[in-house]
Amino acid sequence: MCAAHKKQAFRPGTSLLQEPARDLDYGFLTHYPEKIEMITRNLLIAAASMVVSVGTAGAAEVDASAAEALLKKSGCFKCHAVDKKRDGPSFKETSAKYKGKADGVDKVTKQITTSPKIKVDGVEETHDALKTKDAKDIRNAVDWILSR
User: Are residues 119 and 67 in the same domain?
Assistant: First the structure.
């Protein structure tokens, strides 16, 4: 133990609260620059890992088979395909339009849950809503659409 640490050692019969504040020397880390570098590197790695995991959390949680089953049950594939335009835009087009935008999830959710009026070949129709009210199933379908 170096001299800087010896004066901070706990003395039996005393508490840290009884020690005068002037005896506390936080400069002891300057004796170990390699430790500071290692701690800093580890903190940066941990922070980067958290950012990556948060950024990919939505994409990793998509249950593709459940989303496709719900879209099929709701009749979405009658007018939409994954990568070809039919009466409605392809899911790939929808994804390109809304993916990564702040309001993208909200706009797709509104489109597939509220039965809005749409124009198909110049004729106004009601867009069918998903055949579920379960928020998790709806979000899974939206994430699936946006992941195309």
Answer: yes
Length of the chain measured in residues: 148
Phi, psi of 63 (to 5 degrees): -100, 95
Same domain membership, residue 97 and residue 25? no
Q: Do 73 and 114 meet the contact criterion of CB atoms below 8 Å apart?
A: no
Range of the structural domain that residue 20 is part of = 3-55
The one-digit pLDDT tens for each residue of the chain (148 residues) are 555 555 555 555 555 555 555 545 555 556 666 777 777 777 777 777 666 545 444 445 899 999 999 999 999 999 999 999 999 999 999 999 999 999 999 999 999 999 999 988 889 999 999 999 999 999 999 999 999 9
**Residues 48 and 100 grouped into a single domain:** no
State the Cα–Cα distance between residues 142 and 101, nearest whole angstrom. Answer: 13
